[in-house]
What we know:
By secondary structure, this protein is of the alpha+beta class. Helix content is 42%, strand content 12%.
Amino acid sequence: MTSSTEHARFRGLTWDHPRGAHALRAAAEQAERLGASVLLSWDAQPLEGFESAPIGELAARYDLIVIDHPHLGDAIAQGALQPLDAVLPAELLADLAVHSVGPSFASYSAESHLWALPLDAATQVAAVREDLVDRTPATWDEVRELSLRAPVALSLAGPHAFLSLCSVAVSLGAEPRSLAPRPDFVADPAPLFDRETALAALAMLHELAERAPLDTAALNPIGLLDRMRTRNEIAYIPLVYGYVNYSAASTVADPGSRVHFVDAPAAVRGGRPGSTIGGTGIAISADTRVTPELAAHLGWLLSAAAQEGFIPQHDGQPSRISAWESDAVNATSADFYRRTRRTLDASWIRPRFAGYTAFQSEASAIVRDGLGRPFFDPVATLERIEAAYLTALTSAAHHTQTGATP
């Protein structure tokens, strides 16, 4: 935490991947070399680590935490973070509200406050090895057809089975509900999904899962993209969180085939591509004293200059519209940003109530279990998901009423 010495010292926690750590560490080192009066160090842990450690514990050890927006419900319930509109300049937040791509900025808003700065923008998009595919699908019917003649994989590990279900539902015209418990503290009994849409989405996933390459169901997005780039075992993934790092040209030191990212499939050509937004934001722990120098450093990370230059030059994935539209930024990534922008702009924001991330993990396990059974029963699978959702929502409503942590 911050000290009373001449140079305030801060500790941050991010995720252990070049996209998550390199730019933040390089920026902190640059600031120190230039004699800035704020010293910042970044630790890193696997992305899954944020699921296993309560965010309140992390906030007690770190000043800054890189989070995904679904963690906000638990963070707010535990009093782990401070609202940024209370400690950062209003002009900075107003600028980000206008210039952040897609719903990145909005995803970090809850209970009338902003809780994280949208550092990194990502959503589920399609990944393709163009050397292995005769035509890149644009619709789910075309994905089905491709899976009959080329290896098509799904992202099902961790929370991604459930997120894929949500995204297919979005593309079929019915978003899952994203409401928090009502102010009267009664959990809304309305279902999470439109029933017919969810059953159609589950049937789609089951058909594709049956044809997916062996041993891919247990791979997280990084594992899937690693295999896709280095082997010829995956030609196409319809929904996987985009990583610009895999879209860069291969080098002698890092051999592999270039993975291209394109918009996620829609129900019909020109329709809404179904996707669930991810990305990461920088949150500030509740007990951290925000100095003007720290605020200035964070503001620089989100500035046009950093987002269009420093961030992508250090393996980051920017969140600013001008970076996504930049010729220079797109030139080094096979137009990663331009080819997926429509999907990001149309992506769905997940709920942010206390206990949501635990429900997300449970629902994903239910989807995987349903898809893996010898006799697939989409109705039973959907009923299990809805029961888990109602339990989670009821628990969140109870917390809102009593202040007890779910």
